[in-house]
Amino acid sequence: MSVERVVVGISGASGAALGARIVERLAALPAIETHLVVSDAARRTLDLECPPGTLARLTGLAHRHHPVGDVGASIASGSFPVRGMIVAPCSMQTLSAIATGRTDTLLTRAADVQLKERRRLVLLARETPLHLGHLRNMVAVTEMGAIVTPPVPAFYHCPRSVEEIVDHIAARAIDLLALPHAPLAKSWEG
Ligand SMILES: Cc1cc2nc3c(=O)[nH]c(=O)nc-3n(C[C@H](O)[C@H](O)[C@H](O)COP(=O)(O)O)c2cc1C
């Protein structure tokens, strides 16, 4: 199995645990190289919403942790082959930047690269309720090829904890990258 590179961006919407779980899940898969980029606002949500030391743990699990200001990092270039990118959670600010091609941080530049190279870009857009501008940005990124998958819980697998809900959403997001691993999320058998 050849090594697959995956970029994980964590932006400053609520639900930092989703990004954390995705990094953990990817670290447990064989032949996956995870490149992590965390926005400044996400540093704050990770601090507020996750156990102490979470960011340090994630940077240890990822193959590379790129500073969000480093627009010269490998993942800022389309010539650096990656399978795709997940932004989890994706704030409305980051969604808007992606929708309008604003690439002034490494996170939004890396997302833009996925679109221009016609690679998978999976956005766990998190806000509620949504105004028309949010919805229009979701339409725009979908038209450009991104997959918008808001972190909406499924209840058909009868989750017993928040952790199980987070884990299921994380597994579904990774499955959307179509990596050469079996689906991670438990599938509905009818
Ligand atoms: C605790 C907390 C929760 C937030 N939740 C959301 C959210 O769910 N959705 C959102 O779009 N912004 C949310 N924000 C606001 C974003 O962090 C803010 O718009 C920030 O500028 C986003 O920057 P980024 O996209 O570069 O990460 C939240 C902020 C904080 C401090």
From TrEMBL:
Its EC number is 2.5.1.129. The keyword Calcium does not apply. Transmembrane segments: none annotated. Dimethylallyl phosphate binds at Y156, R172. FMN binds at G12, A13, S14, S39, S91, M92, Q93, T94, R126. Residues 5-175 form the Flavoprotein domain. Keywords: Flavoprotein, FMN, Prenyltransferase, Transferase. InterPro entries: Flavin_trans-like (IPR036551), Flavoprotein (IPR003382), UbiX-like (IPR004507). Belongs to the UbiX/PAD1 family. Flavin prenyltransferase that catalyzes the synthesis of the prenylated FMN cofactor (prenyl-FMN) for 4-hydroxy-3-polyprenylbenzoic acid decarboxylase UbiD. The prenyltransferase is metal-independent and links a dimethylallyl moiety from dimethylallyl monophosphate (DMAP) to the flavin N5 and C6 atoms of FMN. This is Flavin prenyltransferase UbiX. It comes from Shinella pollutisoli. The gene is ubiX.
